[in-house]
Design brief:
The complex is a heterotrimer of chains A (about 550), B (about 450) and C (about 475).
Chain A lengths: L3 H11 L4 E2 L2 H5 L13 H6 L5 E3 L4 H14 L3 E4 L16 E4 L6 E4 L4 E4 L5 H10 L2 E2 L11 H7 L6 H4 L6 E7 L5 E4 L34 E8 L1 E2 L6 E3 L6 E3 L5 E7 L3 H14 L4 E5 L1 H8 L3 H8 L4 H5 L3 E7 L4 H17 L3 E3 L4 E2 L17 E10 L1 H16 L14 E5 L4 E10 L6 H17 L12 H4 L7 H12 L12 H8 L1 H4 L9 H4 L3 H7 L1
Parallel strand pairs in A: 2-4, 3-4
Antiparallel strand pairs in A: 1-2, 5-6, 6-10, 7-11, 8-9, 8-10, 12-13, 13-18, 14-16, 14-17, 15-16, 15-20, 19-21, 20-21
Chain B lengths: L2 E5 L9 H5 L25 H6 L6 H12 L7 H8 L6 H7 L6 H14 L6 H13 L26 E4 L1 H7 L1 H13 L4 E2 L9 H5 L3 H18 L3 E4 L2 H15 L9 E4 H10 L11 E5 L16 E4 L5 E2 L13 H9 L3 E5 L16 H4 L1 H17 L4 E4 L2 H13 L5 E4 H8 L14
Parallel strand pairs in B: 2-3, 2-4, 4-5, 6-9, 6-10, 10-11
Antiparallel strand pairs in B: 1-7, 7-8
Helix pairs in contact in B: 3-6, 8-9, 9-18, 11-12, 13-14, 16-17
Chain C lengths: L1 H9 L5 E2 L2 H7 L13 E4 L3 H14 L3 E4 L16 E4 L6 E5 L4 E5 L4 H10 L2 E2 L12 H6 L15 E7 L5 E3 L25 H5 L8 E8 L1 E2 L3 E9 L2 H13 L6 E5 H8 L6 H4 L3 E9 L4 H17 L18 H8 L17 E9 L4 H14 L7 E8 L4 E10 L4 H20 L11 H7 L2 H14 L13
Parallel strand pairs in C: 2-4, 3-4
Antiparallel strand pairs in C: 1-2, 5-6, 6-10, 7-11, 8-9, 8-10, 12-14, 13-14, 13-16, 15-17, 16-17
The chains are: A alpha+beta (about 550), B alpha/beta (about 450), C alpha+beta (about 475).
Amino acid sequence: MIPKEAIKEFESIVGNEYFTVDPVICEGYRGGPGGYECGLGYEKMMVRIPKGIILPRQTSEVRAIVSVCYQYDIPYVPYSTGFYGAKSHPHVENALLIDLKRMNGFEIDERHLLAVVEPGIIYSQLQEEALRRGMYVSVGGGGGQVSVIANMINDGTSPHSYRFGLAQRRILGTEMVLPDGDLLRLGSLAIQEDPFWGEGPGPDLRGLLRGGTGWRGSFGIVTKMAIKLMPFQPEALRPEGVSPQTSLRLPQNRVKWVNIRMPDHMSLKKAVYEIGKAEIGAAVMKVPLFWRAVARAKSKEEFWEIWSKESEERIQSFHLLRVLLIAYGSEDQMKYEERVLTDIVTELGGQAQRTKQTDESWFKNADSAGMWLMCGGYISVDYISETLDHAVSQGERMADLKRNFTPPLMPDYGERGWFQSLEMGHQGYSEYLIYWDPEENTERVDQFYLESAKENIRRRFYTALLGPNQPLYLTGPAYGRDYHQWLLAIKNEFDPKWLCHPPFPLAHDQFIDEAEWMKTLKDWKEPGLKERKVFPSVKSQTD
Amino acid sequence: MAQKQFDFDITRIDHFLYDMRGCIKCKGCMWVDHIYMPGIRFSTRCPSATRYFFDSFGAYGKMRIGLAYIEKRLPPSDTLRHIFYVCTLCGACDVGCKRNLDLEIGLSLEALRVKLVRDGVGPMPAHQKKADEIFLCHNVFGYPHKKRGAWIPQKISPTKGAKTLYFAGCYGSYIHTEVSRATVKILEASGTPFQMMDDEWCCGNLLFSVGMIEEAKRQAERNLSIVRESGATTLLTSCAECYRMWKVDYPKILHLSTSELGFEVKHLTEFVHEAISEGRIKFSIPFEGKLAYHDSCSLSRLSEPWISWSGERQQWGILQPPLSRRRGTCGVYQSPREILNLIPGIHWAELHRKKENGFCCGAGRGTEDAFPDFAMWAAEQRLEEVVAIGAEGIISACPRCKSNFLRAVKKNQQELQVFDISEIILASIGGVKKERSGDRRH
Amino acid sequence: MRITEDILKLFGPEQLYYNPQTLDHYSKDYSLFPSKRPDCVVKARNAEEIQHVLKYAGSNGIPVVPSSSRVHFYGGTIPQKGGIVLDLTEMDRVLEIDELNRRVRIEVGLTWGKLSKRLEEKGLRVMMPLYPHPLRSVVTDLLEREVITNTVYEYGESLQGMEVVWPNGEVFRTGSASVEGYPESICKGVNPSGPGLDFYRLLQGAQGTMGVVTWANVKVEYLPKMDKIFFIPVSNISRGIEFLSQIMRLRVGQECFFLNRMNIALIFDVDFKKRGERVPPWTLLIVLSGFQRYPEEKIRYEEDLLRNLVKGEFQELLLLEELPNCPFSNLEIVRMLRRAWPDPLTYWKQRYKKGCQSLFFVTKPSYVEKFVGIVEALAIQSGYKKGDIGMYIQPIEQNRACHLEFNFYYDPENGPEKEGMAQLYQKAVLRCLNEGAHFTRPYGEASRVIYERAPEYVRTLKRVKAIFDPQNLMNPGRLCF
């Protein structure tokens, strides 16, 4: 339980209206049963209902809350929208959940192409404000509904990353409450009140915010962030339709999707490389056939009718390249880019296909939650930014691995995932989605998840999903090497009591230790709990 | 795991566990459809989640709390009851969820209220008081039943046996009689004979909405049999909540499809829209005003016909036979807009949150009765939006909305006009002589 | 001396230097920073040798200062507390040129001069700062955030996965270069991020205080097939900046920046004596480029956009296709932009008076005029000729921000002039800081006043530094350490 003295202090920080220990309200913050990783063993074993909920309005309140937590040894979890399923919810008993949605401050600076957001601001809000002023932002794959800050420190990739680049490059002046309550201002905020610049004086402590992905809030609470926006073309993207068929109508003279059917996988990859080399386009990706079925179906039943008619042969011969062209400068730019694109794909035997000139997915990203529709359970088991070659090879390996776990995974006929070009072909991003029925036994899904990490290590693939989504003591020695040692040292320095979202970054390790059906897969070594010397708040739980 | 034969009977909470378990916290139920997201302001469509902040007040929280309650992990409590009733059941969450996930959130919430009532936890005391008044006086206000028809203009006489039966509802009969009067004058102007029930009772919206399903069923059966016996082929309402009850919830309660009612249910706006196209109504008198149109929830996203379904749930959650979902796509959105487009002189504008993304006025489905402050807050939110788009007043197509907006305008001493669309229609066909009826009432 | 004796056991005499002349050479640079000799200099050739030095230094509490360039302008490698200078200049190989993935993997001592030449042979180029000194290390300059002149790529940053030897002697690889067995892997090291945390960020701007980078992957691009350069004389810099903002939002141009009269004259050798009369106060240079396919078409639509703006909102501006009185052809000017400065002996910043003290920071373009006024006024107060100040404005990220640089040319052999310069510089730093200048690269004495303004940042920096370098042996006395 949360001590009475602490309760009084929490109430005095935010007022009675915004703090509660009522078990009914707390139940509303349960991680499961749905969500990212829904129905998986991880969610069932690791997620706990918080014992208290607090809704601060400003950074000073967050600092005060964290200080009280440190005074009374109360584990706490920062929470923005809660969309990231199990891992954005408490994993230990008696935790305080710090719901940041009331921190919804927003400023936009058109002249200097940036917006300052607090954790309660979501992408579709930001995108609309930006579009209205002739700018745009890359809305992460998580969707229009995710907290901009949470996404920027945890993931943040989208097809727009082709031009925008990796998410962390767009993080400017940022304010963060460190796990022990200390305040850190990054970038120009380190010195002044203006957050326009991301680098602070000397070493760039934005390095603590995230790696390939972030740490689900376990390295501190970001309370404010300035992020870079990009200038857009001048014409409006007009919303049309009634739910669920809503989309943005693209002004084709300025913004256009081009779909090209390529003869084979190699030519598709080559085309993606060539497009990057020619420095055209605003987004370039390979689309899985699966998505086409999703786009065409008006219901789950219709999806399955379409999808069940597919076959391995069809999947292997479906090579759809999708390119977004944006004419930032003039309509002549559109003509030029179309001409270059046509040349490239024609040389490689590609044929343009008809496509709708609307967008549901990548400007305001309204349909990401639709990934759950087909089966009820969904997760991106891996996503990686490396070369385009890497994206293709890893896709093939993951497809092979998936076969051994289908069922319970949804039949996908050997689909090799999707990939896209990042930073104009300097990198390739690949992502492997898996789907399952959470009403069925999901132990094999948990196992697949772990096996994918092992496959990455065996094959020397890179991955964004290291410790936050896999056992740290499995991935740690394999990357860096021993990146986990530094990570844990930093965690220990800034969160000596391990109160900020415990047991991260060792959450997945604990899951493997405790889930009977995972134990047989554990073939790596790790120090015992005592040797880890790391998490008093977790130890009390597991001892 | 396949769920054998089930249906969407809201008295069977076990039929909704799949939907309740399927929530992924995307919060599509709370946010405006991201495609239509208007920016930082006016970005949500769920009044309770917006007002009370804690996740527990959004559908995502309610689904979790509901499951815990059903599975007896949470005992009943005041908080629990409060959470399930301080909710407008406006359907925003349901259409939001069906933008991507097709979970039956709206039905789950209705089923939870039925369960609460059956468990003796619900409804709220204020609801019980209202229910008693309905039983006693057949209206939600506890006003004398004999005065129910007092609003009918002397010069207008209903026609026995007419094909159209006008159901005025409690608000139209007692509080916003200008709406009922306008409606019958419009009927008259269009040359449409209409009948009324000899003894009109409340439609039972409150009873149904708060989970008093047995009582609501009795009301439904009684009303339905009268209409069926009347020979009417069209049941006309000018109240959106009555409209929804007749069109959607009566069939739902009685395990029918809307098409099996034996008559068509129409809202005044649908009727007028048709009459215009048939040349029976013409707008000739300019109606000056810079007004915003508010989609009443029960006319818009909640009004799609009910289709009775039963079948089984197979692997991946596939329904067999396939179900045509009610996603709010085919609500009555266009008719009022087409009407307003044809009214000369009027400058009407869309609110940021429109159609399926509309923000409830806060009044309906038992909310104002038990939580007047919350209902007031919701109306104030909506009026803020009216002011933000530069409109000078608001039009709705439901006297309940009008009533609640008027309360808010009065409380805040705003210079905003509040109209029911029937008043504007009437004025523009020449049914109002000089004065503008736009209420300010403060 | 014990250090040298010990190190001799680890390295042969050909890698260890401690004669006075050599120590003297490493004790100073082209900055105003006071000189200080190291105890010895070790020329390392690989990561293993670096490990030896760091482990030895760690065991014995001896400071280590990594040095990768052959020329230094900011005092960053002057060993303030003595110790070992770890000279990395011999680690200057191009380890890989991966044309497919548009990257090179290069050792830390590789210079701009060598790299740009190697890449040009392959039809490639690396994004470069403004005419870098040919003997500067590419990796160091990128780590130190030398701003690049090409701002069309929104994703910016060129550095990718790299290798670092941490102060404790452990070798670590960042980003996707962190996979086991790299580079014998399908991973090419193109992703700088991770593993776990963005370690590469901690190495940026660190001036060797966090570890020793041995090699890095760097993005390269194809050399354009066709270029066209425009010179736009600007008398009102605010109008020029407004014009630039508009064209950059349209994604027009590749290399693009402003130089003032003095710097134009120094760089392009423009009629040096008459620069006052012939050269406008500011010149905006903008290069339009066409790539492999339909290059002329791309240049045409970009030029149309430029011309439309000039015809419309900016009628006072002229699009000149040649730089007046310039001995170089346009083609040569564009080529120069993609190469290091050709001759180390006539480096443009040292051309006028041998010495150059640069004051630079990041700011918003709308503040440029204010800062120019401030710095000119301070210069005049200090008796420095206003017209002798070189100025360079590099727009960054669609001109939402810019790098503003003032070059004060002075004679380092002239004591009073040097002293006056030091005072002027210090005053200017303080004044600009007060007016909102953002210094991401604190050097020398200026770092003290800059860090005084950032107490929270300093506190956290020190906590992080103590994790990696608990004895504070890496380039001690630098930054806030």
